[in-house]
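Q: Sequence in, structure out?
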Amino acid sequence: MLITARMLSEENDPSPYEVGGQWVLGIGTERRYFGPNTKMSKLFAKGKGAKYMEDNWRKKYEDNVIPDGGTYTDFSYDFTWIDKGARAFNTSNPAEHFIGSWSGSAHATEDLIVFRASNVTSIRSLTFGKNIDQINEAHNLNIPSLPDLPNRSGPNGPRVPLGNMETIIEWVKPRKKSK
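A: Exactly. Output:
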């Protein structure tokens, strides 16, 4: 079945499947932000990667008690299919599958811990950081090579199908205040 832009939801809170379809078709914005109350964020926050980051936060700030202005930067989560526990095969969470590998940060507000994951969706991201030639060689395949594509066909041109798209997801957790 051919997927068309008309078949995709026109709501402002798309599911991971809808965002994936928009990326494939090259529609929508080239930078996607999903705040804490969106479908994508709520689903992502239930995933193993989000839990892993939250656990690392708790290790940094014992028992979730953090000082005012506490931050956590330079976190990364590799979504792999072979090494590091084959994380791609260990979750059925569609938001985790869409975002793939990501970098993260967190900061404390007065009442919340705000977690952020970001990734550039691209051909290379889709292939778990491997280029097609590496996959062909490793698995004796002959898949045609595709380069990472720009966001647009020109400075003000239309979006490109499968073009690079930045995705940012934020979720929040209650904060225990330091004593």
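Residues 24 and 162 are 5 Å apart (CA to CA).
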